[in-house]
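Box 3.1. Reading complex inputs
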Amino acid sequence: MSKSIFYHAGCPVCISAEHDIVNLIGEDNVKIVHLGEDRSQIKNAEIAGVQSVPALLTSNGNVLHINFGASMADVKG
Amino acid sequence: MSKSIFYHAGCPVCISAEHDIVNLIGEDNVKIVHLGEDRSQIKNAEIAGVQSVPALLTSNGNVLHINFGASMADVKG
């Protein structure tokens, strides 16, 4: 199985969700991308369908938006 | 590890998310609760902190709200 990608932006909700996701699916199965620190990944995230963070892009291309997170506009702003 | 609980209400977004979650964490590690069919569970879900569905209640008590789902008010309505 290829890795899922967990997109976040460093907010407390994101960090909490990151820990939960890593615990649930295992850190070997998920790549963590911090969009605040690696802004070059924002475009890729948007193309993949990420509308808010935190979000989990599964290996089959689905996006699970988690919690009532920050909008992509907030991440860019 | 005790099981996580995936709450949903049968909407297309819920079913898609359910498949993703089961694929990610394994069906042995998650209990699926359909709040539309098992309305007695709505109160438990709310007490656990579920504000919208689909949502994943992790074994450590955190609630991951997934996608832009239906509000609990909609599930009750």
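In summary: The CA atoms of residues 52 and 74 of chain A lie 9 Å apart.
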